[in-house]
Structures are given as C-alpha cells and as structure tokens.
Design goal:
Layout: H1 13-16, H2 19-26, H3 32-47, E1 56-59, H4 66-74, E2 79-84, H5 87-92, H6 96-99, E3 102-106, H7 109-115, E4 123-127, H8 135-149, E5 153-159, E6 182-189, E7 196-203
Parallel strand pairs: 1-2, 1-4, 2-3, 4-5
Antiparallel strand pairs: 5-7, 6-7
Amino acid sequence: MKNQSNVEFGKFGKERFPPETYQEGVGINARKLLQDNSKELTKVLIEHDVIKDDFKVFEMGAGPARNLYYIWEINNSCRFFCNDYSKEASFAHMAPVIKERINFFEGDSEEIIKNNPMNDVDLFLVSDHFMHLQYDKANNIITEILNNWLPKYIMLREVKKKCEAPMHPRLYHNYSRFLESYDLLHESTSKQDDRYFIWLLKRK
C-alpha cells in the first residue's frame, strides 16, 4: 500500500463526479471515444469466448451501464448487476433495454462490495473506476473480491502505473494481487488511449 502523506490528491467520489451532471457524459449517448472503449472491451470478451447463455455480469461503478449494453448485444440472455452512487441519474442516461433487466445497487463501491457479496458472478467488470478510488479503498475492494466474491472472470480497464495523475485523480493500484487466484488470459494497451491497460483474468 502506498504512503499518501507526501502526495497531493484531487477530489474523490461525488465531489469529483457529481452524478446529476456527470452521468450524461458517460451514458448510452456518450461521445464516440467512450463508445469505442466499450466496444474494445466486448471484442476481447468475444475473442476469448467468455460470454455464455445466462451469464451473470456485475460491473462496479457502472454509471448508466454503457458497457453492459454492449455485452447485452453479444448475448441477450445475460443477467446484469451493477452499482453506482445514483440510481436516478444513472437510469436517466441508460439504454431502455438495460433498465428493464438490471439489478442496481445504489451507493459507494467499497460498501456495496463489502455488504453484498455475490459468489456466483461469472464476470466482474471494472472500467475506468478503480483509478478514481483512494488507495485504501481500492485495496479493501480487491481483498473483498478475492475473499468473498471470486468471480469466474475479471475484466479491468484502468490507468497504467506510469500514467498516474493523483490530482485528477487517476490512481494505479496493486492489481497483481489478482494473480494469486487468477490466470491472466489477455493483456493489452487500449487502442483509444495508450495510458490505459486491459486485463482479462480467469479464476485458477
């Protein structure tokens, strides 16, 4: 865990991303770059033949669940679960078909992951969300995932270590902890932005 005492950080949580204004920019009608990010993730899932019928997918910090919409396009039988700070703001910018089939947990990611363990998740997805969490908070979530969730697959799209920007904040965390229990099936740099990596992991 990193020593934060000599690092200056930007704002976190609702202070940095007010749900009432932020969700519109990352929802189903987001700009092309974000749509391409979602398509890139689903392409990796397709290449590794991950998504199956009745797959249970949980996305942490999903906002309006744009990524889940593109997974739904792969297989309409998937069951979707996610969390974010505001259900109302997220649903306002969510694809109608996802609204009808999503189980939404409203609240802080650390609290949701700690208090609602789901040990039958097929895919646990985190895209551009860990990087906006404090070091301690992210470390606690990773511990909960490894101890109490243990999904079959984990997919990450997060900022690279060399591209950390604490004042944004975009933070890098100790993702190597996942390798204790998971094999790394896929590792690449995002084609949209080379500051970001993509990992697909499968439980050993």
